[in-house]
Each structure stands twice: as C-alpha cells, then as structure tokens.
Design goal:
Layout lengths: L10 H12 L11 E5 L6 H17 L2 E5 L6 H13 L4 E4 L4 H13 L4 E4 L11 E3 L2 H15 L3 E8 L4 H13 L4 E9 L4 H13 L7 E4 L5 H10 L6 E5 L3 H9 L4 E4 L2 H17 L20 E3 L3 E3 L4 H4 L5
Parallel strand pairs: 1-2, 1-3, 3-4, 4-5, 5-11, 6-7, 6-8, 8-9, 9-10
Antiparallel strand pairs: 10-12
Helix pairs in contact: 2-10, 3-4, 5-6, 7-8
Length: 327
C-alpha cells in the first residue's frame, strides 16, 4: 500500500515544473490578466475541489481565474465553452479534455493565437498543449489493479465502469490490465457510463441479474460510478463482490466506511488547478518561443513534459487521516 502521493518516474517532472512556480512574483501581474479552467460536469465535488485550488492561486497572484464548462458530462458542449474562452483572448487556459480528439484542433488553434494551454486531469497528447499537470494515471491503475489482484487471489471476472474516449481513463485501464497480466483475472465487460452515474447504477443491476455472467469485482475508473455500484450491490446483499473506486467525494468515503467499497484511488484536483494556474501564469510572462514548438522531443526544453501531482490508495486503514480537515 502506498502511503504517499507521488508515484513513479514522473516525480522528476515536479521538480522541473517547480522552476516555473518559484519565478512567479506578485508585482508583475496586471489587473486585466484572466485565466480559465475548462472542464465538464463541473458541479461534481471533484471539479469543485479544483475550483478551490484555482481560486486560491488566483487570489495569491491577484489575477482573475474561472472554472467553466457544462454542468453535466457533454463533450460537444465542452468544445463550445473552450471556443468561447479562446475568443476572449485570455492570458492562459487550463483544460481537461473529455474527448482529446474533439479538442485537439481547438487547442492547436489557441496555441497558434499565442495563448498558452496546459492540460490538467486528462491529457490531449496529440495536440500542441504545452504539457500535462495531473495524476500519473497509469500508476493509479496499476496501484488499484495490484490491490484487486490480491483481494481476488489472482483469479476472477471484473467489470469496468469507464468513459472509453477519455485519455486519463485509457491510461488507468492500461495500468489495471498490466497488473492483471500474470493472473487469471479477466475484464469481462467495460461499461461506457458516458459521465452519467445513473448508467452505472442501471448497468450494475443488469449485470448482477444476468445468471450467465459471473462477476467478482467492479472497477470504477472515474469519480461518479463507485457509489452507484456499491449501492446496487448492497441492496442485493452482494457485498462480497469487491469494488475499487476513484476519487474522494464524501459518498465514496462513506461507502468505504460501510464496507461497500474496498478502496479508492484519491487524486489531487485542488493541486492540479493550483499548480496549473501558477504555471500558466509563468508561461504568460515568460512565453517559450515558438509557443507551438515540439517541446516533448526537445532535449533543452523550456517546459517540463508533465507534472505528476500524485495519488493515494485509500481504504479503511487510512480513511480517518484522509477525512481530517485540510488546510
């Protein structure tokens, strides 16, 4: 079990990124500097935590920042919000692409217009975004997968709750699959919940009613489905089935306490937004040239490839610590 938040080789990226943060001074900020974080489903607790981080950084730097995006999961509406933000010619943009292919051209157009763009939470690696700030999602999946393999004794059938087009969830699934590689655990179904927790609830009912499908565990790769799966299993007295969730909203933590969820992988959306905004601000004041250059392959790059904000495995053993008031 990992007790810390930093995972894997991406730790070095944090220190590369910190050079940008430490160069920031409040005196250089103009009153008209404005930054945006474009997400989707922005009313859920995960993005409200990100908004807190965004607002804290903005307050410290005396700039304006705003979380925007659809109130529900809607990839096309996110594109509309992103275009509207670009039209305002902001100082910088943070974006969590729900569908990286849909947003690739939009991100590239923003870069071409001279607006620094950083991806947070979910990446768009095929675009010209400067870099990614967020969880090492492959490592998060690997951590969850290893725990599940231990709980299942190396064998069993697993159902995934996911959103197939989203880059961060693709990486999490890859981590789980690699954790299962030397076991007899099989992923027998991947449910596209399309950002709607109601789909997770309904599909779980359907799956447990199917007498021809023996399922031992449910893996929820995003924030909203874990508590829905746990609710269905508890209503049907199937608590013996293992549920691994994602993120740390109050209901998910309550289900861990009740035993309906075995563990969750906690991310740091507050940190993603806080660090992301400070780095976007530095890019505004110290813009690398050319902005749309291929910095990933440049061995003397002026920006990091990515910043790993860390994750943690949370279960009953450390639940009380996670629930302590945060600064």
């Amino acid at each position: 079990m990992r007790s810390g938040f930093l995972n894997g080789p991406a730790v070095s990226f944090v220190f590369a990124g910190m050079a940008l943060l430490t160069s920031c001074s409040q005196s250089r900020h103009a009153g008209d500097e404005r930054y945006y974080l474009v997400a989707t489903n922005i009313k859920i607790p995960y993005w409200q935590a990100a908004a807190d981080g965004l607002n804290k950084a903005a307050s410290e730097m005396k700039v304006t920042a705003e979380l925007v995006g659809p109130d529900k999961y809607d990839v096309n509406e996110q594109v509309t919000h992103f275009r509207a933000v670009v039209a305002k010619k902001p100082s910088g943009i943070l974006v969590s692409p729900a569908d990286p292919q849909l947003l690739k051209g939009e991100i590239d157009a923003a870069i071409a217009a001279g607006i620094p763009v950083i991806t947070v939470d979910s990446d768009a690696p095929g675009s010209r975004r400067l870099f990614f700030v967020g969880t090492n999602n492959y490592q998060a999946g690997l951590t969850g997968g290893r725990l599940l393999a231990q709980k299942l004794g190396g064998k069993g059938n697993v159902v995934l709750m996911t959103i197939p087009a989203q880059a961060n969830l693709i990486e999490r699934r890859r981590g789980y699959e690699d954790a299962f590689a030397d076991t007899s655990i099989k992923i027998v179904q991947a449910v596209d919940i399309r950002g709607d927790p109601g789909i997770a609830f309904d599909k779980t009912k359907e799956i447990i009613a199917n007498k021809n499908l023996n399922v031992d565990a449910f893996v929820c790769l995003e924030a909203t489905s874990g508590k829905e799966v746990a609710d269905v299993l508890t209503r049907n007295n199937l608590q013996a089935k293992t549920v691994i969730a994602m993120d740390t909203d109050d209901q998910t933590l309550a289900w861990i306490e009740k035993g309906g969820i075995a563990a969750t992988i906690g991310q740091k959306p507050f940190t993603m937004a806080y660090v992301g905004l400070r780095m976007a601000d530095d890019l505004h004041h110290n813009t690398p040239q050319p902005l749309g250059g291929d910095w990933t392959r440049n061995l003397r790059s002026l920006v990091p490839s990515g910043v790993d904000t860390g994750s943690a495995l949370i279960d009953r053993s450390n639940l009380a610590t996670i629930r302590q008031p945060q600064q």
